[in-house]
Amino acid sequence: MHPLLSRDLKRLPELLEQARNYAVSVLADLPSRPAAVPPAPKDAEPLPEEGIGSAAALEHFQRRWATGFSGSAGSRYLGFVTGGATPAAVVGDWLTGVFDQNVVSSSDSCATDLERETVGWLRELFGLSAEHSGAFVTGATMSNFVGLAIGREWVGEQLGVSIADDGLAAVGDIPVLSSSPHSSTFKALSMLGIGRNSVRRIPSLPGREAVDVDQLAAELEALDGRPAIVVANAGTVNTVDFDDLRALAELRQRHRFWLHVDAAFGGFAALSPRYADLVAGLDQADSICIDLHKWLNVPYDSGVQFSRRPDLQVRIFQNYATYLGLPGPDPDFVHLTPESSRRLRALPAWFTLTAYGRQGHREIVERDAALAQELGNRISAAPHLRLLAPVRLNTVCFTLAEQPTAEKIDALANAIARSGQTFLSPTVHQGVPALRAAVSNWRTTEDDLPKIMDALGCPAA
């Protein structure tokens, strides 16, 4: 054994204690760590030839890189839709690395059963039917990819072919209908060979990002029975708008289409009776995307996908080899997702659900939504800012009150990032350059709002 490896093995408990102490100090400093740290140019070091051992590597990391990391795990990071990691989720994530399970096959470990149990809990949490099966994936992009892949295979089934076996050439173009698809939908369609240009944009309701169901029905009618994929939204990224999922499901009585719902973070509305109506009908979807490192507050990367057709899923993703075996009635995960090597992403989710239960995570959703509403109220009261949409759940979309331009918004976003007080994502909503504040961290409280408003040019009196 290499001498440094041998030394580290003998000192492993001490090394883990050092890492624990450092991690504790990082978490303790989160309130004062800048929410964002715009990076300065840094020359890459050469590959180490001899190595320096774990203890020295930890010290080198602290000096060279740690100070440049953002406070994205903290309470005032409002960019993108980024959750933190609950204490239980951190424990689960550390143990994921310790046990280092490859959740591919059920032949050597109960890890697959833990993932199935956790998927079952999540299915219940989001109010889905027992007909929905699922698996952990890396996040929303891969969840959308899997759901749309199954939808692609369903279209082939309707036309009497297997696209998984014969390719897209066997069916030609596949219509994809959506009003406000997320960018990851286009990425998934590109990877699937369906193509970004396959999307037919359906008009939204006036002043909304939700699809006009009548316009969608007319577009489906024009397909004259040709099977299609409809991508619905349960929480758009800019204004957290929701398609009428029940109305979309009813359209299937007259038209042939696969209903895929992107509920990456909006699906968490199901946790609260106050907001559950927003996702009424979610259980009628054929496939569903949920991003867990958003509002479940587990570490990156973690998502889950659900579908009603595991048979089609296996047809696409089966990975037969003599050492893996054929997929059976309860197929191993190697046959259900693109990955043949799978980290035990379910463990942090299992820990946080076990530790805090449905009620604990409901409290996070309701508190974050209330804070977003209050932030929206304060922004509305600021003379130099204006809201661009109602605060429906946990995201505030706003802009400058006078002559907002891309240049002005970018300058404001950069100034906010440099301040370290908070971090917001720039966006464009209905042609207007804007900023977006997404509250999805379990740590965020009312005490954070004055600092956020101060960064927006509204100091406390």
List keywords for this structure.
2 domains; Aspartate Aminotransferase, domain 2; 461 residues; Aspartate Aminotransferase, domain 1; alpha/beta; 4-stranded antiparallel sheet
Can you give me a brief rundown of this structure?
The protein is of the alpha/beta class.
Count of extended strands: 11
Q: Compute the number of helices.
A: 15
At CATH's second level, what is the architecture of the largest domain?
3-Layer(aba) Sandwich
Instruction: Give me the CATH superfamily of the largest domain.
Output: Type I PLP-dependent aspartate aminotransferase-like (Major domain)
Structural class: alpha/beta
Q: Which CATH class of the largest domain?
A: Alpha Beta
Explained architecture:
With 461 residues, this protein is an alpha/beta fold. The chain folds into 2 domains: 183 residues, Aspartate Aminotransferase, domain 1 (Alpha-Beta Complex); 242 residues, Aspartate Aminotransferase, domain 2. The chain is 39% helix and 12% strand. It is built from 15 helices and 11 strands. Strands 1-7-6-5-4-2-3 form a 7-stranded mixed sheet, with helices on both faces. A hairpin with a 7-residue loop joins strand 8 and strand 9. Helix 4 runs antiparallel to helix 13 and helix 6 packs across helix 12. The radius of gyration is 23 Å and the shape is globular. The model has no long low-confidence stretch (mean pLDDT 96). One of its GO terms (biological process) is carboxylic acid metabolic process. Belongs to the group II decarboxylase family.
Write the layout of secondary structure elements.
Blueprint: H1 3-10, H2 12-28, H3 54-64, H4 87-99, H5 111-125, E1 133-137, H6 140-158, H7 163-166, E2 176-178, H8 183-191, E3 199-201, H9 213-222, E4 228-233, H10 245-251, E5 257-262, E6 287-291, H11 292-295, E7 303-307, H12 310-317, H13 346-381, E8 385-387, E9 395-400, H14 406-419, E10 425-429, E11 432-438, H15 449-455
Parallel strand pairs: 2-3, 2-4, 4-5, 5-6
Antiparallel strand pairs: 1-7, 6-7, 8-9, 9-11, 10-11
